[in-house]
């Protein structure tokens, strides 16, 4: 069984209050290496059988129309994950 992973992030011009809260909290945990955080979403779509170009196209369409809000979010990655290998699509 293969999986298609879709990563969605807020557009750069959109405020990210969750990311800001995380970056403010990190120093309280002793983590000081980071100056910014943006929080996004990850979706894993399971596929029975082979991931064909048609299946990838369908995943991209779902990502653009249902998994993200195109007004405030960008689909930044669509990746195929097989048993032992992963390839970016």
TrEMBL record:
<keyword id="KW-0067">ATP-binding</keyword>
<comment type="function">
    <text>Part of the phosphoribosylformylglycinamidine synthase complex involved in the purines biosynthetic pathway. Catalyzes the ATP-dependent conversion of formylglycinamide ribonucleotide (FGAR) and glutamine to yield formylglycinamidine ribonucleotide (FGAM) and glutamate. The FGAM synthase complex is composed of three subunits. PurQ produces an ammonia molecule by converting glutamine to glutamate. PurL transfers the ammonia molecule to FGAR to form FGAM in an ATP-dependent manner.</text>
</comment>
<dbReference type="InterPro" id="IPR036604">
    <property type="entry name" value="PurS-like_sf"/>
</dbReference>
<comment type="similarity">
    <text>Belongs to the PurS family.</text>
</comment>
<dbReference type="Pfam" id="PF02700">
    <property type="entry name" value="PurS"/>
</dbReference>
<dbReference type="GO" id="GO:0004642">
    <property type="term" value="F:phosphoribosylformylglycinamidine synthase activity"/>
</dbReference>
<comment type="subunit">
    <text>Part of the FGAM synthase complex composed of 1 PurL, 1 PurQ and 2 PurS subunits.</text>
</comment>
<keyword id="KW-0963">Cytoplasm</keyword>
<comment type="pathway">
    <text>Purine metabolism; IMP biosynthesis via de novo pathway; 5-amino-1-(5-phospho-D-ribosyl)imidazole from N(2)-formyl-N(1)-(5-phospho-D-ribosyl)glycinamide: step 1/2.</text>
</comment>
<dbReference type="GO" id="GO:0006189">
    <property type="term" value="P:'de novo' IMP biosynthetic process"/>
</dbReference>
<dbReference type="GO" id="GO:0005737">
    <property type="term" value="C:cytoplasm"/>
</dbReference>
<dbReference type="GO" id="GO:0005524">
    <property type="term" value="F:ATP binding"/>
</dbReference>
<keyword id="KW-0436">Ligase</keyword>
<keyword id="KW-0658">Purine biosynthesis</keyword>
<protein>
    <recommendedName>
        <fullName>Phosphoribosylformylglycinamidine synthase subunit PurS</fullName>
        <ecNumber>6.3.5.3</ecNumber>
    </recommendedName>
</protein>
<keyword id="KW-0547">Nucleotide-binding</keyword>
<dbReference type="InterPro" id="IPR003850">
    <property type="entry name" value="PurS"/>
</dbReference>
């Amino acid at each position: 069984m293969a999986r298609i992973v879709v990563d969605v992030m807020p557009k750069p011009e959109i405020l990210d209050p969750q990311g800001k809260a995380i970056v403010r909290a990190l120093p309280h945990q002793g983590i000081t290496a980071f100056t910014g955080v943006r929080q996004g979403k990850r979706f894993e779509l399971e596929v029975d059988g082979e991931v064909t170009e048609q299946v990838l196209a369908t995943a991209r369409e779902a990502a653009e129309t249902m998994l993200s809000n195109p007004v405030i979010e960008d689909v930044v990655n669509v990746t195929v994950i097989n048993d032992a290998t992963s390839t970016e699509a």
